[in-house]
Design a protein that fits this description.
disordered N terminus; seven-stranded mixed beta sheet; alpha/beta; Rossmann fold
């Protein structure tokens, strides 16, 4: 999703399930219900996001040597396809089959190979410490008492690898309530940062402007960016 990965690009285009202003974005706990929710949202439009890679992703991976990358909540595939074109070995997961089918078509049209997974992050049972880059662009990850989603994110990063999580700034309590949304249902950057221990270096944790011309997330004008490197 912008997304689980749901997102847009700083031209807006990844599953952006964390688009907190969407009135239909509730917090079902059953994985099938989550997938059905996102299938419905994607099916309402022929294209939901801009089709461009997220700007924060593009800027933050400059200088990184291509390796294995996990795209969490890949949505319609803009990030996954673009990263594959940069020489990375890409695994991309998405809970919406509708979005994933669109992503697969994009990859075929662009002539790149991506390992696509129809799954949520926690349910995917990914091999630990196996990705040089884990990218979660505007992910709609449900919070749990055991921090399952946050721990899944961190556990997949290989020693020496990079974790990149990008979100929109949190809405005010009044904004959230007006849309029937409680941000406490979802993992934010603060929850991810809280689990970074001595095995990690926090390299970026900031709010910056973003400029997106198209797609469902184009009304957002700021990104909150967290980048951390795993030491061991």
């Amino acid at each position: 999703m912008e997304q689980t990965n749901h997102s847009p690009a700083d031209s807006s285009d990844f599953p952006e399930p964390a688009d907190f202003t969407e009135p239909d974005l509730r917090s079902p706990r059953d994985p099938q219900a989550v997938g059905a929710l996102w299938d419905q949202r994607y099916a309402e439009k022929g294209t939901l996001w801009s089709g461009q890679p997220n700007g924060a992703l593009v800027s933050e991976i400059r200088g990184l040597r291509p390796g294995r990358v996990l795209d969490v909540g890949c949505g319609e595939g803009a990030d996954a396809v673009w990263v594959a074109e940069q020489g990375w070995d890409v695994t991309a997961l998405e809970v919406s089959k509708v979005a994933l089918d669109r992503a697969i078509r994009q990859a075929e049209q662009r002539g790149v190979t991506v390992n696509w997974l129809h799954s949520g992050l926690v349910e995917a049972s990914l091999p630990p410490a196996s990705f040089d880059l884990v990218s979660a662009q505007y992910p709609a990850l449900l919070r749990t008492d055991d921090n399952a989603a946050e721990r899944a994110l961190l556990s997949t990063v290989a020693p020496g690898g990079t974790l990149l999580v990008v979100h929109h700034p949190l809405p005010t309590a009044e904004e959230a309530a007006s849309h029937g949304f409680d941000h406490r249902d979802y993992v934010g950057l603060a929850e991810v940062a809280a689990l970074l221990d001595e095995d990690w270096i926090l390299e970026v944790n900031e709010t910056r402007p973003r400029h997106v011309a198209a797609g469902a997330g184009a009304h957002h004008t700021e990104d909150v960016v967290l980048r951390a490197r795993r030491l061991r």
